[in-house]
Design a protein that fits this description.
The complex is a heterodimer of chains A (132) and B (396).
Chain A: H1 7-18, E1 23-27, H2 40-43, E2 49-53, E3 57-66, E4 78-85, E5 90-95, E6 108-114, E7 117-122, H3 123-131
Parallel strand pairs in A: 5-7
Antiparallel strand pairs in A: 1-2, 3-4, 3-6, 4-5, 6-7
Chain B: E1 13-20, H1 31-45, E2 55-60, H2 73-76, E3 84-88, H3 94-108, E4 113-120, H4 128-131, H5 144-147, H6 153-168, H7 172-186, H8 200-205, E5 208-211, E6 213-214, E7 224-231, H9 233-236, E8 244-252, H10 270-281, E9 290-292, H11 298-307, H12 316-321, H13 338-342, H14 348-358, E10 372-378, E11 383-390
Parallel strand pairs in B: 2-3, 2-4, 9-10
Antiparallel strand pairs in B: 1-7, 1-8, 4-7, 5-6, 8-11, 10-11
The chains are: A alpha+beta (132), B alpha/beta (396).
Chain lengths: 132, 396
């Protein structure tokens, strides 16, 4: 029986974030991305699955604006989104670079990084930031 | 009035005892003390001595430590030779699950009378928002949400609510209509904590916690405990109070993939739980005369209506805004004020109101109790369990 080591999955993903790479797991046979909840394959060191760098393009499915302060490290208002990557996986992430009232479900996003790790910005704003 | 005409299975078991500790926003004792108080009260309510009870199921809050509600509680109460003993944890669905497993155990002959208890002290020296401030693991990568500053139970539910708004056009006012209906019910319940009338203007003026949720979209935690005694249909005939018969039950834990099309925020295991429960009772959603939901946030009430087939998918907001769930409406929901205006003691809040309603003891808030749907849910809309109960031994 193969020992299950689920932390490998988190380690791989978080190592990517530390290296400013947003990684997704992909089924080599179908070419389709796996969701971030699907990790049983990781325990088996499945050669049919590979980590791949995501494009960073995404869409905002939903969002929240936290008004009640929970942690000094995260001043409010703080916007979080349910973000769907172009490849299909979804995750929750901070949305930066836009006033809370300018955030709308359905807006195009682009992955970026700040001192706390992964963030998403509105796609056009992200492009302007890069040009500058 | 139950409308289905097919012959129905006999009930599996009955709830014959309901016991409360004191409930307060102030410190009133430890979880263990409150649980012991509620168990003693439930046994007396069922006309039993503690030594007549041979099963004990415990449910602590996910925010409490195991030792705060230990298995050895039965020693505290002098309960010996138990035939059934377990501490259960399926988060917010646990209380309903306890009653399910107690009913199945009684029906199988594993135990004769089982007491199920939930106790919690979320307000020990801090506010409820601090107690429930933990980050919920929603993305799939452990610790990810904490690293993103996505704290608090309200955040995950708020994200789900906004998804419903984006998909179906649900509005702030519709969330408000749900909260106001709950407040109207609470005004009729002497046990409810928030009974002052609330207008839509009051609701809209309440401050945001995590948008789209305002303070009045969030539950009102209290310290306290509630216990229920579950026994056989035959033994229920000897109980001093009218029996609450358990006709149907179901669970649904659909899981998450975190992939495009998953929609775990709006499409939950409540659907599976409801279908199983309706089938087991030989009824349909149309037969439900009132619902007692686990509604820690207003949105959960709307979504439960949809998940349990009591209104169309996506129409929960409109259903509530038309007043259907409020006093005088066609489907009374959370007639004690629920978690928002009654009190938040997790899954035993809706269970206790269901028993009060089934007994016809609801006073000013009493409504048609022909078939009562009781739900529990936990995680962040991840774990679902429900019961169908009635004062009627046979559903017509």
């Amino acid at each position: 029986m193969d020992q299950v080591f689920m932390h490998r999955y988190d380690d791989e993903f978080l190592a990517g974030i530390a290296a400013k790479q947003l990684r997704i797991a992909v089924d080599r046979r179908s070419g389709k991305a796996l969701g971030y909840h699907e990790r049983a394959w990781c325990a088996r060191d499945d050669a049919g699955v590979a980590w791949k760098r995501a494009s960073g393009r995404a869409v905002l499915l939903s969002y929240t604006v936290t008004r009640r302060p929970y942690s000094p490290g995260f001043p409010v208002p703080l916007v979080h989104g349910l973000v769907e990557l172009e490849e299909g996986p979804q995750l929750i992430c901070r949305i930066v670079g836009a006033a809370p009232e300018a955030v709308v479900a359905g807006m195009a996003l682009k992955a970026d990084y700040d001192d706390k790790g992964l963030v998403f910005r509105r796609a056009r704003a992200a492009a302007r930031a890069k040009q500058a | 009035m139950v409308k289905s005409t097919t012959s129905k299975p006999r009930p599996r078991a009955a709830i014959t005892g309901l016991g409360f500790s004191a409930m307060s926003r102030q410190p009133i004792g430890t979880i263990r003390e409150l649980a012991a108080t509620a168990i003693t009260a439930a046994a007396a309510d069922a006309g039993l001595r503690l030594k007549d009870i041979d099963g004990l199921l415990l449910n602590k809050s996910p925010t409490a430590a195991t030792d705060e509600l230990p298995l050895r509680l039965h020693n505290d109460l002098g309960m010996r030779d138990l035939a059934l003993l377990a501490a259960m944890d399926s988060e917010g669905s646990t209380a309903v699950q306890m009653v399910q497993y107690a009913a199945l155990a009684v029906e199988a002959g594993l135990a004769k009378s089982v007491v199920c208890v939930f106790a919690d002290t979320p307000l020990k020296g801090k506010g409820g928002g601090d107690t429930f401030a933990m980050a919920m693991p929603l993305s799939g990568v452990e610790s990810w949400e904490a690293g993103q500053g996505f704290f608090g139970a309200s955040a995950g539910y708020a994200l789900a609510a906004r998804r419903h708004m984006a998909l179906f056009g649900t509005t702030h006012e519709q969330l408000g209509a749900y909260a106001i209906a709950c407040r109207q019910w609470a005004a009729l319940n002497p046990q409810a904590f928030l009974r002052k009338p609330m207008s839509m203007a009051d609701y809209l003026a309440s401050p945001f916690v995590v948008e789209p949720f305002r303070v009045f979209d969030c539950c009102f935690p209290v310290n306290g405990a509630i216990a229920l005694v579950v026994t056989s249909v035959e033994r229920a005939a000897d109980a001093p109070k009218p029996a609450t018969y358990i006709h149907g039950m179901g669970q649904g834990h659909r899981g998450r993939s975190g992939l495009r099309g998953d929609e775990a925020e709006v499409d939950t295991g409540a659907t599976q739980a409801g279908k199983t429960a309706y089938r087991s009772a030989g009824v349909t959603a149309r037969d439900v005369t009132q619902a007692q939901f686990y509604d820690a946030f207003s949105y959960v009430g709307l979504l439960s209506l949809e998940g349990y087939g009591l209104c169309r998918r996506g129409a929960g907001g409109a259903f509530v805004a038309r007043g259907h769930t409020a006093p005088g409406g066609k489907l009374p929901v959370n007639t004690g004020g629920g978690h928002l205006s009654g009190f938040y003691l997790q899954g035993v809040t809706p269970l206790s109101e269901a028993v009060i309603q089934a007994r016809g003891a609801g006073g000013e808030r009493q409504v048609d109790n022909g078939l009562i749907l009781v739900s529990g849910n936990g995680g962040c809309l991840d774990y679902h369990a429900c019961l169908l109960v009635s004062p009627n031994k046979r559903l017509n």
